[in-house]
């Protein structure tokens, strides 16, 4: 991003106006029950600020990946209820073509129920965007988790109405700029998750500017293979071993020294902690071990800036959660550093493992968006706001 992104204040007097707010309400559901409402809570400050300024809200959001048609499994009905509870106001769920009437707050049903939302053809997106724009006088994008998508409700609508970024998006951009433009040093990046291929571009872009890169999760086994270790049945991307050798040659990469292994991904499976040079051929690594947690804590101790994306193991299962909890705690203990959690599974892990979110400087609501920003990519939602906002 080079051009500044305008904020809500650039829109002027909103009293009595309809504001279309693109929010990120893509929360996990279990049988219709919300299992993590972190993204809904993150949307509340911007919504409240708009309401305090006298605006009436038309909230647009997606949930999951329906195939361009209505699907009850992806309805935003549970989200409307939770949103109303958090706002202390009635939230009415309506269809894309329904009249909002006199309601102060309406939530449009899942925008991905319309094929125009995610259409690759700009003309198809434009038709849906016009319908959305017709519901409001202004547009506010507060869905950082979707700004990397060139979708109708993210990109095209911003070109049709006076537009601005919500407070959440502005905060995300501010923090990510600090990571890319002037990080205070030492700058340590912690990456986990399953695949090196998912993080390849961000490693390429960040490695020259970071002081240390700590690698855990399933992706560490391709790095360990690059050192010549047998990784048993652990996740391995053999085609990226040579690339990992190049990363290791920088001298900036720290890998686990021990891992928790099991014969299967199962909470009841027998586990053991082994040195990374002694992974049994019939077993797979599913978490970093206790010595690795201490090694990572040591590398983090002097950090002034930390970015973390991706769990250290299969944290959803208790036998493989200690590594993620240990690293999360080590980062949370850095009271004087800028500590940024890059959304996605990392943010979910913090909440699931009971680590106080307030102990981190910033928890991103958009894992994919934050990674693409750090890769140096232009994000369509931010580009539209910068070019057409205000």
Word description of this protein:
The protein has 390 residues and is an alpha/beta fold. The protein folds into 2 domains: 8-171 and 379-388, Phosphoglycerate kinase, N-terminal domain (Rossmann fold), CATH 3.40.50; 185-336, Rossmann fold (3-Layer(aba) Sandwich). 34% of the residues lie in helices and 16% in strands. It has 13 helices and 17 strands. The protein has helices at 38-52, 77-87, 122-133, 152-156, 167-181, 196-206, 220-226, 241-248, 290-300, 322-332, 344-352, 367-374, 380-388; strands at residues 18-22, 29-30, 33-34, 56-60, 92-94, 105-108, 138-141, 163-165, 187-191, 212-215, 253-254, 258-262, 272-275, 284-288, 305-309, 338-341, 362-363. Strands 5-6-4-1-7-8 form a 6-stranded parallel beta sheet, sandwiched between helices. Strand 16, helix 11 and strand 17 (362-363) form a beta-alpha-beta unit. Helix 1 crosses helix 2 (77-87). The radius of gyration is 22 Å and the shape is elongated. The protein starts with 17 loop residues before the first strand and ends with a helix. The model has no long low-confidence stretch (mean pLDDT 95).
């Amino acid at each position: 991003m080079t051009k500044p992104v305008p904020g809500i204040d650039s829109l002027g007097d909103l009293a009595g106006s309809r504001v279309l707010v693109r929010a990120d309400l893509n929360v996990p559901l279990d049988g219709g029950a919300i299992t993590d409402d972190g993204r809904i809570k993150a949307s509340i400050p911007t919504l409240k600020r708009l309401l305090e300024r006298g605006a009436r809200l038309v909230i647009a959001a997606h949930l999951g990946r329906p195939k361009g048609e209505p699907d009850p499994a992806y309805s935003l009905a549970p989200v409307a209820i939770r949103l109303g509870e958090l706002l202390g106001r009635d939230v009415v769920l309506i269809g894309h073509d329904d009249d909002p009437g006199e309601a102060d707050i309406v939530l449009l049903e899942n925008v991905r129920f319309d094929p125009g939302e995610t259409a690759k053809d700009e003309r198809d997106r434009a038709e849906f965007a016009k319908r959305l724009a017709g519901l409001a006088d202004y547009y506010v994008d507060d869905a950082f988790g979707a700004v990397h998508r060139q979708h109708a409700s993210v990109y095209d609508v911003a070109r049709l109405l006076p537009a601005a970024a919500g407070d959440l998006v502005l905060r995300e951009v501010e923090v990510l700029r600090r990571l890319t433009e002037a990080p205070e040093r030492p700058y340590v990046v912690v990456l986990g998750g399953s695949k090196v291929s998912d993080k390849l571009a961000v490693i390429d872009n960040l490695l020259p500017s970071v002081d240390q890169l700590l690698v855990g999760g399933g992706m560490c086994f391709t790095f360990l293979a690059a050192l010549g270790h047998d990784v048993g049945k652990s996740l391995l991307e053999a085609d990226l071993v040579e690339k990992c050798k190049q990363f290791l040659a920088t001298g900036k990469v720290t890998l686990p020294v021990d891992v928790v292994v099991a014969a299967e991904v199962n909470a009841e499976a027998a586990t053991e902690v082994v040195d990374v040079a002694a992974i049994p051929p019939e077993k797979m690594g599913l978490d970093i071990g206790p010595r690795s947690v201490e090694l990572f804590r040591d590398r983090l101790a002097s950090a002034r800036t930390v970015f973390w994306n991706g769990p250290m193991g299969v944290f959803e299962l208790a036998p493989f959660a200690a590594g993620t909890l240990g690293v999360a705690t080590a980062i949370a203990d850095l009271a004087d550093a800028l500590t940024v959690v890059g959304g996605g599974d990392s943010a979910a892990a913090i909440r699931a493992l009971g680590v106080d979110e307030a102990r981190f400087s910033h928890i991103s609501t958009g894992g994919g968006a934050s990674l693409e920003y750090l890769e140096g990519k232009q994000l369509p939602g931010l580009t539209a706001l910068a070019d057409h906002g205000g």
